[in-house]
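Reopening this ticket.

The earlier resolution said the output was attached, but the attachment link was broken on my side. Pasting everything inline this time so it's all in one place.
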Amino acid sequence: MTKKQAEARIRELREALRRHDHAYFVEAHPVVSDREYDGLKEELAALEDRYPDLVTPDSPTQRVGGEPLAGFTTVRHRTPMMSLDNTYNRDELTAFDKRVRRALALEDDDPPVAYAVEPKIDGVAVSLIYEDGAFTRGATRGNGEEGDDITANLRTLRSLPLRLAGSVPALVEVRGEVYMTRGDFLELNRRAEAEGRTPYVNPRNTTAGTLKLLDSRIVAGRPLRIAVYAVANPRDLGLVTQIGAMDRLREFGFPVLGAEPAAGIDGLGAVVEDWSTRHHELPFDVDGLVIKVDRLAEQDELGATSRFPRWAIAYKFPAEEKSTRLLDIVLQVGRTGAVTPTAILEPVFVSGTTVSRATLHNADEVARLDARVGDTVVVKKAGEIIPKVERVLVDLRPRGTRPFVYPKKCPRCGNALVREEGEVVVRCVNINCPAQLERSLMHYASRGGMDIEGLGEKLVVQLVREGLVGDVADLYALTAGHLLPLERMAEKSAENLVAAVEASKRRGLGRLLFALGIRHVGSTVARVLARKFGSLEALAAASLEDLEAVAEVGPVIARSVHAFFRRSGNRKLTDRLAAAGVETREQDAAVPAGEAMLEGETVVVTGTLSRFTRTEIKTLIESLGGRAAGSVSKKTSFVVAGEEAGGKRQQAEALGVPVLTETEFLARIGRP
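Inline output:
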């Protein structure tokens, strides 16, 4: 066979294998036997071995990578991956529909909102990028803005097309969910038990753990599948609706579960009721439904909060409940001094995991439940995630049980516990409490904080116990010599930890602000403050009025941040961090005042723009010093109206707020 003939045969074999993968994993209708499939793949591999220059990244033989990676690279998502707010009943669904109608300025006699309803797979969300039709990058959700590059692992999924079918734009960015079917999971556990290994706990956790493996050859042996559910750049594909997007994804060759239409709240109610029993028939776990406004132009108009899109919500199915015995009630001290009661349970399997601990929230909840050691209690998972004690089966209470009495002293340091007026939380106010220090260190080193690999709970406890660390700044003075005497600490581990602490200096101001554990400041608000003020020094000097003027910062957060930097101990701590070389400036900060062309102006964008996505124009407005608002009011400076601009344009005209076209807006900021 000549090279030219081999090249033609290679193309033929690749296309045949892609068709067979699609028939098996997407259509669930295989057309060849496993032996025939393997024969085609072996022939292709032999030809590629003979002509290695003809091997391409999208070849079916390239699904399993080479040597294990040293670690995952962090990548920034082109479009942020947001979370979904949850709803649990018809009343909350009705409230969601009312919010959508109000934001779209719909009257009572206007038609119902068109929704798309999809099953919510209990798996792991990923972002996929295709360039010129070829799969080039896959990443985990991470913190929504950045995730781990797991391209090599995702390539092993035979249900994931490495090349898209038909005519595709230069760039396609999609979202998907990686999962295991229950049957595949059971077979995986049967193999594990036959080989004398510990069986896996549940499909979702096993999927997440598999995607974190650094050796894609091991990943290839796990029965992972994927289903895609969204296009992140729908304008590039000329899409109009979510249901249309699902159809287009199916044409590209993706496995898609599909979306059902629902008109208004009555339609949603009917679909939800149908799925409440039908979801048990699926071969994989789902924990609810995802409800989206179908028209993409309306999605753009509705926008998003700092955490959730306003045009989508998750409806969660009722949580599974199980009864078990309460063995003990223990108190845990958090980094803010909050003392939280935790139930120690006789292990019970609930919603896919074995539960041996459950939250009791606070002293009031313990009193309300009258939970006593020895009781039989009902356990469920709040939001299908956090185990909680739902109620006590008093009829089964054994004789001799005693009510739980909240202690008056901290279980770790012995200082008095305090409950401030109007609060339900009992706190230890001793700032030198070792439990608070341990939690603060773990929060500082967490993935969302300074991401110090290797600094886990057991090591933190040792560092505090041995007096090596008295606050987070002390971490930067640690040497391998300090660490070597600790339990289970070898020379290489000590060097790796010192290197990880050193690397954390370059995380940026946003991560640092979150890591400091300022009360009420989550990761999103931390990034907002970092971009707005640009440096730790500027933020520390900000007045209460300066902080309250930031759009995403309310009075409670502003007071908390202001108070944090007014405490001399906190200022000394941040000064020590800066002296240790920790980066206290934000690279992606707001532009200088001279370039802030929209300083003090509030801008609302509505409709579909030709040159920007909603995220892009919001970023542009904020980079010029303006505030990108989601609703029109008398305080709105002007509205930018694109195609299919609806109720917001009408509201602006009624209030006398100027309305600019996209071209007029660009001219205003000097970017025609």
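Reporter confirms the inline version is readable. Residues 590-594 have pLDDT under 50 and may be disordered. The domain at 509-579 is CATH 1.10.150.20 (DNA polymerase; domain 1).
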